[in-house]
Write a structure and sequence with these properties.
Layout: E1 17-20, E2 38-46, E3 52-59, E4 64-66, E5 69-71, H1 77-81, H2 92-120, H3 127-138, H4 146-165, H5 172-180, H6 195-209, E6 215-216, H7 220-223, H8 230-243, E7 250-251, H9 253-263, H10 268-279, H11 289-302, H12 306-310, H13 312-323, H14 333-341, H15 372-413, H16 418-421, H17 423-441, H18 448-455, H19 468-500, H20 503-509, H21 511-514, H22 521-526, H23 528-547, H24 549-552, H25 568-575, H26 578-590, H27 603-627, E8 632-638, E9 642-648, E10 660-664, E11 674-677, E12 686-692, H28 696-708, E13 720-723, E14 734-739, E15 751-757, H29 762-798, E16 820-827, H30 837-846, E17 852-858, H31 867-883, E18 895-897, H32 902-912, E19 917-923, H33 926-940, E20 946-952
Parallel strand pairs: 15-16, 15-19, 16-17, 17-18, 19-20
Antiparallel strand pairs: 1-2, 2-3, 4-5, 6-7, 8-9, 8-13, 9-12, 10-11, 10-14
């Protein structure tokens, strides 16, 4: 024997494997005949890298034990008969011993045959020799199982060949990629800095959680930073414990350090072995389908994928089908390794932008560092380029307020009242003039019909209509400042001065303004001016407070019954106090202490046009909502508390993708109108909106429609649905619109980057559908033009031009400027993908030219490369390669895990679309808007690609 395997503590050459055995049953010793048994000798080499190399399989020395004696395969029968040790006249005792020895040898050979096959599966060997040794080993099981054993051996040989062909790329880059592909500890947790700091943090957790010097099993997940994946952490602990043949209930600090060292081992092989051990609970070196199912369910639970958990059995069968084509019923370590490292070959769908030279992503910035002054100058120029429309509008507004304030300040300085009331009066009257102007101006940004019309004019090039609500809020802030200056100076300064002045001075300067009787402080407050002013201040204070984010978003928690002061309803109704405010403002402006001529009482002049314009808009909305009768076609309630309403489209209702409309449901409230993005395309014959439950009105709306919906029936999805055939009558719905939004200008850009957070994807669904419809129509027109050209050529060759009737070529559609669109949808709930599943599948089917590229991101799943999501990534790749469907979204669009690397997204777009003008449209929470805006600025400084950022919040 040239090699020795240490586990069995014996030389393998000493064990002979019987291939065939036949013993005569004749009772006469003299007539007993023995057929020679065939044996093979297996010679193996144990290499330094723990692999076994098969050297040879040769006939072995044969032991013949019979009545005549014992002989080797090299002896002749005559020599055996002349042996002095064994003769035919031996005693029965010796014959019995020889039979027992023979039976023991055969049993020993069978046992070793099974052990040999199990050990050889763990190591690589030459295919030619493998088939020989497996064939030789299997023959020991006897004649009765030759057929089944042959099929089993063929399967083993096929797997051995497949393993030989599946040589993995273990280059340095490949190893680094593999190492990133299986992490037990997330980068965002313990491994923020380095291994030492990570262990110090774990050790600190041990000190907090340990009891009597031991960390108990229930606290292990929290200690290593996997609190949110407790079940996964416990399986990891059990796998590490099985290595030590222990059932771990508690561990000491030293044991924790040993386990931590294994978990954070930088060797990919070590991590892979731990992952394999987690699955292989019975430690037989094999993973069965049931064990795969268990680990899939565990991963699904850790990543909050309830649907994947329900389909664990189906996906376990898929993995076994891929990795066990020989149908042996189990997979081994090398197969799992192959799948993990080569899963990218399956992920050829919905790939991210091309990785062409990411060095170009830092494009053309130059190697020289610019001076600080030059950098500041560049930032200033960029700021002007991006904000010049806002700057000139705000500058003009501020200039007008300053001019009005200065005019009134100078005007009242010439009056006699200045001699008594001083600069308090001048400040109050200057602030009052700005209040008149702002109270008129604040209505214009909320005249939505007017704003929508102005968007389509050339004024949109100079006025930032997208910022209408922000400008409305800014004016409100200026009104607050004006009220403080006006009311504060009157109540705290000039009124007290008037009361304290002597009678002589009063009669000299203020007799014509206040009359013969000098007013008291109470008289000033009880007058029409005082009462109207105080009521206006109270109403505006209420409206302003309840419109702040804390109250409108219900971030302030108040005890009952004061909790009704928070939420959208409180904001909506309190804002209608402006009707009282404007009436009182007109009255207040007619009863001025120091102005007595009607032409000089200018309050009504300021507010007349804006009030009439706004009143006209509200009247138009009232009549138009009745003029747009809609019939509900379909209602569905999706996971994530999302209600979708599909309704008939009024013939006069014309809109653009990205716009929104107002919806009213009288069954919920006969007064409230709420805006929602239109998710249907302009060419669709219906209107649709998706409404997520975020406040009290949407909560009540969902309840009302839930009562009208019917439970799911067999063969349909498990959603609450309703349509025209529903027995229960659906609530009445009124609509008003459409109204303009930033996203409606998408057609102005060469490339689109659409980013939606959760329900913020709604305006972009309409854009994607519109793009798709345009693509289909342009292709149809191209086909028609081709057919027309071909027919024209045929007719020109077959008929005289004078006799041929004039043919009119088909009308060409205006070419679409947008060449590519990239849609990034980020959500934290798997059920969210049901909202637009049909749209995504339709785009994937019809967009043959790849104009639209979609990327779904699920933030509840750990990032790709984390061990908790490793198996999900494998199943995802396999299922899409086989069925063309993503297991997470249920569509043909691939779902990525965790959050996008936005810097990398912008980098790739710069590389792919040099010198392009890219429109970045975002809808969602304000947090991400800041990051995207900053990235647009950074990349605009680096190269020829220009990013224009637009945002809208919900």
């Amino acid at each position: 024997m040239e090699g020795q395997y240490p586990t069995h503590e014996r030389r393998w050459a000493s064990d002979s494997i019987p291939a065939k055995s036949a013993v005569s049953s004749d009772s006469s010793p003299g007539n007993e005949s023995t057929s020679a048994e065939e044996f093979v000798e297996v010679t193996l080499d144990l290499q330094d890298d723990n692999t076994i190399v098969l050297r040879s399989v040769e006939p072995a020395a044969v032991i013949n034990i019979d009545d005549g004696g014992v002989s080797t395969g090299n002896e002749t029968p005559s020599s055996a008969s002349r042996s002095p040790t064994f003769r035919r006249t031996s005693s029965n005792r010796l014959r019995q011993f020889s039979q027992e020895l023979k039976a023991e040898a055969v049993a020993k050979a069978k046992q070793f045959s099974q052990e040999l096959k199990a050990e050889l599966r763990r190591f690589s060997w030459s295919h030619g020799h493998a088939s020989r040794v497996l064939s030789a080993s299997a023959s020991a099981s006897g004649q009765n199982s030759v057929g089944a054993s042959g099929a089993f051996d063929s399967a083993l040989a096929a797997r051995a060949l497949r393993r030989q062909r599946a040589q993995l790329d273990r280059t340095r880059s490949g190893a680094e990629k593999a190492l990133r592909g299986l992490r037990f500890i997330s980068n965002t947790n313990n491994c923020r800095n380095n291994g030492v700091d990570a262990w110090n943090e774990v050790q600190s957790n041990f000190e907090k959680l340990a009891k009597d010097g031991y960390l108990y099993r229930a606290d292990f997940a929290q200690c290593i930073g996997m609190r949110e994946s407790k079940e996964f952490a416990l399986e990891l602990l059990d796998a590490l414990g099985r290595r030590r043949r222990l059932k771990v209930d508690k561990i000491s600090r030293d044991e924790l350090y040993e386990f931590w060292s294994q978990i954070t081992d930088q060797s990919f092989d070590s991590r892979l072995q731990i992952f394999f051990d987690m699955v292989d609970k019975n430690e037989d070196g094999r993973i069965t389908e049931e064990e795969v199912k268990e680990i899939i369910m565990l991963s699904a639970c850790a990543n909050k994928l309830s649907r994947l958990k329900e389909q664990a059995e189906e996906y376990a069968a898929l993995i076994m089908e891929e990795l066990d084509p020989e149908r042996l019923g189990y997979i081994e370590l090398w197969q799992l390794e192959t799948l993990l490292l080569q899963k990218d070959t399956y992920l050829n769908y919905s790939q991210a932008l091309s990785y062409t030279s990411q060095a170009l992503s830092q494009n053309l910035q130059g190697l020289r560092k610019r001076s600080r002054i030059r950098r500041m100058g560049t930032k200033f120029v960029y700021y002007l380029q991006e904000n010049w429309r806002r700057i000139w509008v705000v500058a003009l507004w501020v200039a007008i307020m300053i001019a009005l304030f200065a005019w009134k300040f100078y005007q009242y300085k010439q009056k006699n009242a200045f001699q008594i009331m001083g600069y308090c009066l001048l400040t109050a009257k200057g602030a009052a003039e700005t209040l008149k102007f702002n109270m008129a101006l604040i209505l214009l940004p909320v005249c939505r019909n007017t704003i929508t019309w102005l968007r389509s004019t050339r004024m949109s090039h100079f006025v930032p209509f997208d910022d209408n609500i922000n400008f409305h809020k800014t004016i409100a802030g200026a009104i607050v400042v004006g009220v403080i200056l006006h009311a504060g100076n009157h109540l705290a300064c000039d009124f007290p001065r008037l009361v304290k002045v002597s009678e002589d001075v009063y009669e000299k300067y203020l007799l014509d303004d206040f009359g013969h009787h000098k007013p008291t402080y109470g008289d000033l407050l009880k007058g029409v001016e005082g009462v109207t002013g105080i009521i206006m201040v109270i109403c505006m204070a209420i409206a302003f407070t309840l419109a702040t984010r804390w109250f409108r978003r219900s971030l302030v928690k108040l005890p009952k019954p004061f909790d009704r002061l928070t939420g959208f309803n409180a904001f909506w109704y309190s804002h209608h106090l402006f009707v009282i405010v404007y009436i009182l403002l007109i009255v207040h402006g007619q009863y001025l202490y120091l102005v007595h001529k009607f032409p000089l009482k200018t309050t009504w002049i300021y507010i007349a046009v804006p009030v009439l314009l706004y009143a006209g808009e509200r009247t138009l909305r009232f009549f138009r909502s009745g003029f747009y009768p809609v019939r509900l076609l379909k209602v569905a309630i999706y996971p994530g508390n999302v209600l979708t309403l599909q309704m008939s489209k009024p013939p006069q209702f014309k809109y653009k993708s990205g716009q929104y409309m107002f919806v009213q449901c009288p069954a919920v409230s006969p007064f409230e109108w709420h805006p929602f993005s239109i998710t249907s395309a302009p060419d669709d014959d219906y209107l649709s909106v998706h409404i997520r439950q975020l406040g009290d009105w949407t909560r009540e709306l969902k309840r009302v429609f839930s009562e009208a919906c019917e439970p799911p029936v067999a063969g349909k999805s498990g959603l609450l649905r309703a349509d025209e055939s529903t027995k229960k009558s659906l609530p009445k719905l009124l609509i008003d619109g459409p109204y303009g939004a930033p996203a409606q200008d998408y057609h102005k850009y060469d490339v689109l980057l659409l980013v939606g957070l959760g329900i913020g994807a709604t305006p972009f669904i309409s854009i994607l559908k519109d793009l798709l419809n345009n693509i289909v129509k342009m292709e149809e027109q191209a086909d028609l033009a081709s057919d027309f050209s071909r027919m024209s050529e045929l007719s020109a060759g077959s008929a005289d031009s004078s006799n041929t009737p004039n043919r009119v070529s088909p009308k060409r559609r205006k070419p679409l400027k947008t060449t590519n669109a990239y849609f990034y949808w980020v959500t934290r709930e798997q059920g969210s993908f049901d909202w637009f599943k049909g749209v995504m599948n339709e785009i994937a089917d019809l967009d043959q030219r790849g104009v639209i590229e979609m990327h779904n991101y699920l933030t509840s799943v750990y990032e790709e490369g984390d061990a908790r999501s490793a198996l999900i990534t494998m199943v995802q790749a396999l299922n899409h390669a086989k069925n063309g469907v993503d297991i997470v979204s249920g569509t043909r669009v691939r779902t990525h895990f965790a959050r996008p690397n936005w810097k990398k997204v912008f980098s790739k777009m710069c590389s792919k679309h040099c010198s392009a003008r890219i429109g970045v449209f975002y809808c969602g929470a304000p947090v991400l808007a800041t990051e995207l805006s900053k990235l647009c600025y950074e990349f605009n400084q680096k190269g020829s690609t220009k990013f224009d950022f637009h945002k809208e919040h919900f």
